[in-house]
Design brief:
Blueprint lengths: L1 E11 L4 E9 L2 E7 L5 E6 L4 E4 L1 E3 L7 E2 L2 E2 L4 H10 L2 E8 L7 H12 L6 E7 L9 H6 L4 E5 L11 H14 L2 E5 L3 H11 L2 H7 L2 H5 L3 H18 L3 E3 L5 H12 L4 E6 H5 L22 H10 L4 E5 L7 H4 L3 E2 L6 E2 L14 H11 L5 H15 L17 E4 L4 E3 L18 E3 L2 E6 L2 E5 L2 E2 L18
Parallel strand pairs: 1-4, 1-5, 6-9, 9-10, 10-11, 11-12, 12-13, 13-14, 14-15
Antiparallel strand pairs: 1-2, 2-3, 5-18, 7-8, 16-17, 18-21, 19-20, 21-22, 22-23
Bound molecules: zinc ion.
């Protein structure tokens, strides 16, 4: 007799789909058996439903001070969004304050998250000063084996030059961790921004200047350079939020040559193109890197079963009012300055539904491939595969139960995010989670968050699996 049995569901992992029962006790999956074979104190009937491993969104920024404001989704609203979207673990980025250590950043993020999350959590450690390199070993021992460097964001004091990237990758080769990079070419980008940052052009082009000043080569050059340092050091590299066809080509070529580089893309780069910047509210869609063209979208879908290992969200939500910070001047003279837009999009509610609807329903990927991209691969490459990302005995009972008949037309008030707009407004999506369990405990029932915000836990991660 198990504490809980999920009965008669269509259980899909990265490798297989079977109809069966899942027996859960003490937060762990204990047995996967034939349909109607297991008994539990509690039973959840999953007849006609998909049962999949909870998604792991490895790229979120909750309550992040950024662009002169703070992202509006914190661990409370962010973890409710996550849970309703079938995401059972989030990995944020702990970014040290000016002059602060990695340990202080870890403590600061623990304060934001502990007691305030429905889902489990961890973070990558952002290296923003050379002194942080001395803390890498200690962070790995605390269960934090992944590090982040920004190739842009000088104004925030976050950016790393090639020297620091090189040294960090040497440390990764030595100690076994992984370096995540935000790859955009900062000097060329700054030059393009400088050329266009004049009132006449801003009046004429508005938010379109965000995409005009970030041609694809801005990302491609930075990815190429980061791959170069990974190749010569042997340090493991992971390109976050890759948005271009050129990036995918570079990563594919490097992987063929044996360079230890992995890549992630985000749902928005698969679902939106840069025509959004011509909309009346086009400035809302500004994020870095921005969404690209139709050819990039097609190339990235093609990459999902090849050189791209993970799909995440880069959730960094800002309300309409926050996005409105871009306005300069008053009345008829007012215009928008795209460099002042708080950069980022909400996304935790819609990661799995977008991939389910545009990917699985339209036949571009299988449900098993969806599970790989949002759960099994993220667990493997981020050091969680010993506890998460699969449905088998001994794993955390982190599960999303999806009713394939349920559809929702997206509008901000129907989502859990505090954001008062959605980039996916009006899209009719399936794939939302009917019931979500985190370590065996329901955090969503009948599409609504339930349970205690103290349920989510910090999870210690191991060194990422090779390959
Ligand atoms: Zn990010």
């Amino acid at each position: 007799m198990f504490e809980c049995v999920i009965r008669n569901g269509s259980i899909s992992t990265a490798n297989s789909t079977v109809v069966g029962d899942i027996g859960i006790s003490s937060g762990l999956i204990r047995e996967v058996g034939p349909a109607n074979s297991l008994t539990g104190v509690q039973t959840i009937d999953a007849t006609g439903m998909h049962v999949v491993p909870g998604a792991i969104d490895v790229h979120v920024h909750l309550e992040l001070p950024f662009c002169g404001t703070v992202s509006c989704d914190d661990f409370e609203s962010g973890s409710r969004s996550a849970a309703c979207g079938g995401v059972t673990t989030v990995i944020d980025f702990a970014i040290p304050s000016a002059g602060g250590t990695l340990l202080e950043a870890h403590d600061a993020w623990m304060k934001k998250a502990r007691g305030r999350s429905l889902v489990d959590f961890s973070w990558h450690m952002a290296i923003t000063r050379d002194e942080h390199l001395d803390e890498i070993g200690a962070m790995i021992r605390r269960g934090l084996p992944t590090f982040k460097e920004f190739m842009i964001y000088e104004a925030e004091g976050w950016n790393s030059d090639d020297g620091r990237m090189f040294r960090t990758l040497e440390a990764m080769a030595d100690l076994g961790g992984m370096l995540l990079v935000h790859a955009e070419s900062s000097r060329v980008l700054n030059e393009l921004i400088r050329r266009h940052h004049v009132p006449e052009l801003m009046r004429e082009h508005g938010a379109r200047l965000h995409t005009i000043t970030r041609p694809n080569f801005v990302e491609a050059e930075a990815i190429e350079r980061a791959i170069h340092w990974s190749r010569v050091t042997g340090g493991r590299l992971y390109v976050v939020h890759m948005s271009t066809a050129e990036g995918a080509d570079l990563v594919a070529a490097a992987q063929r040559q044996g360079v230890p580089v992995l890549a992630e893309t985000c749902a928005q780069y698969l679902c939106l193109d840069d025509s959004v910047f011509s909309k009346p509210d086009g400035h809302l869609f500004a994020c870095c890197p921005q969404v690209k063209g139709r050819a990039d979208i097609e190339r990235l879908w093609h990459a999902l079963t090849r050189e791209v290992s993970v799909v995440s969200t880069d959730t960094c939500s800002f309300t309409r009012e926050q996005k409105g910070m871009w306005m300069v001047g008053q009345g008829a003279d007012a215009y928008g300055d795209w460099t002042k837009i708080p950069m980022g999009l909400p996304g935790l509610d819609t990661l799995v539904p977008l991939l389910y609807t545009l990917g699985v329903e339209s036949g571009r990927i299988t449900l098993n491939q969806l599970v790989s991209l949002v759960s099994t691969n993220p667990a493997r490459v981020m050091g969680l595969s010993h506890i998460k990302g699969d449905i088998r005995p001994g794993m955390h009972a982190d599960l999303a139960i999806i009713d394939p008949e349920f559809r929702m037309t997206v509008s901000p008030e129907r989502l859990q995010s505090r954001c008062d707009w959605s980039p996916f407004d009006g899209m009719n999506l399936a794939g939302f989670s009917h019931t979500t369990l985190v370590r065996g405990v329901p955090v969503v029932r009948d599409h609504a968050p339930v349970g205690n915000l103290s349920h989510g836990r910090f999870v210690e991660r191991r060194l990422p699996d090779a390959g």
